[in-house]
Write a structure and sequence with these properties.
This protein is an all-alpha fold. It has 4 helices and no strands. It is 77% helix and 0% strand.
């Protein structure tokens, strides 16, 4: 289910938004939703960290590194620091 949000913008900006929306064949509300979604996505640290872990995991798997190898390396590093 969708909900509404009310914002205030100056009339010139509103007119430019509507012109751009018409040129792209989209409703202005769709453009605003897309812009907000992209803004949130770019700043969602949880999603960024998840994506980073997925990339790291993929690289490790492609190199044949297993979970046990990582655990072993962590243990060895901790022992060396003592």
């Amino acid at each position: 289910m969708s909900t509404q949000i009310n914002i205030r913008i100056n009339p010139e900006l509103k007119e430019k938004l509507y012109k751009l929306a018409r040129a792209e064949g989209k409703p202005a509300s769709r453009m605003v939703r897309d812009i907000i979604a992209e803004y949130v996505k770019d700043r969602d640290i949880g999603a960024y960290v998840d994506d980073l872990w997925n990339k790291i995991g993929g690289k490790m798997r492609s190199r044949g590194i297993k979970t046990g190898d990582v655990v072993k390396a962590i243990r060895e590093t901790r022992k060396a620091r003592r």
